[in-house]
Amino acid sequence: NAWAVVNGLMSVQYSVLLVPLPLWIVGHTHAPRWSVACGLLINTVICVVFQVRVGRRVETVAQGAAAYRTAGLLFLLSCPLFGLLGGLPGWGAVLLLALGAAVHTVGELWHASGQFALGYDLAPAHAQSQYQGMMFLWSSLGLSVSPGFLTLLCVDGGRAGWIALGVFFALLGPAGRRRGGSPSN
Predict the structure, then answer these.
(1) How far is CA 86 from each of CA 29, 81, 159, rounded to the nearest angstrom?
(2) CB 110 within 8 A of CB 140
């Protein structure tokens, strides 16, 4: 299932706030070290408060594909914001970090909702377990390579790497739509 591969690649986004962003903050910005926790706190609060609300709006294949596109565009906004943290004074970096974490987390909500809508609705009734297995296999592969990939791209690649990551996700958003078009994929 080609959609499972696209989803595995998009699942790399789950590691952005956990691996490259803390390394970037500590090694390349004037933000205080405690601000790493702010990004994670913002992510947690937004997910707890809004995931069900967003998920209720994504129930069909068409809505799942649209959610994927929205997620890609939100990641296109958030990732370059993280790249800009390096040139700001500490207080400015903390404010931009908060904004970037909020935007990224809203993208995460849309990705997760689209992932589940497409993951279940694209599968024929007799093959639900096979589709779920394939989806989680590719998601796990994406998560397993993400620390190294994201560190090389964003921490070593600097601002250009953060921009490239945003573009990567933005390109995957519409790919989820094309792959999410019919159960025959």
Answers:
(1) 4, 10, 8
(2) no
Which tokens go with 64? 């799942």
- DSSP assignment, residue 156? I
Token code pair at residue 27: 């090694």
Q: Residue 56 burial by CB count (10 A; 0-12/13-18/19+): exposed, middle or buried?
A: exposed
Q: What is the pLDDT of residues 43-76, one digit of tens each?
A: 999 999 999 999 999 999 999 999 999 999 999 9
In DSSP notation, 64-118 reads HHHHHHHHHHHHHHHHHHHHGGGGS-HHHHHHHHHHHHHHHHHHHHHHHHHHHHH
Instruction: Give the pLDDT band (50/70/90) at residue 125.
Output: confident
pLDDT (0 to 100) of residue 177: 60
Quick check: 66 and 37 in contact, CB under 8 A? no
CA proximity to 38, closest of 124, 29, 73: 29
**DSSP H helical segments within 2-89, as ranges?**
2-10, 20-28, 35-56, 61-83
Residue 1: pLDDT over 90: no
On whether the CB atoms of residues 141 and 8 are closer than 8 A, the answer is yes
pTM: 0.91
What is the C-alpha separation between 9 and 145, in angstroms, rounded?
10
